[in-house]
Write a structure and sequence with these properties.
This protein is mainly β. It has one domain. Helices cover 11% and strands 38% of the residues. The chain is built from 1 helix and 5 strands, in the order E-E-E-E-H-E. It has a 5-stranded antiparallel β-sheet with strand order 4-3-2-1-5. The termini are far apart.
Length: 65
Amino acid sequence: MRLQQDQVWEKGETALRITRLERHEVEFKYLTAGGESEILVKKEFCRLLKGANLRAPQPKVEPAE
């Protein structure tokens, strides 16, 4: 599993977005539960994601000149 910043993971009714990714820890937000932010060690975060699906990334739209 390759984690990247701004990825959105869905597990059942819950959606998580990675807001900050460092070598040993991950900061993420719950998108469905009022936007609570949490920090976990990468190993624990990967355990949390077990069985979750990665939401397809949204294409970036560049502003018209």
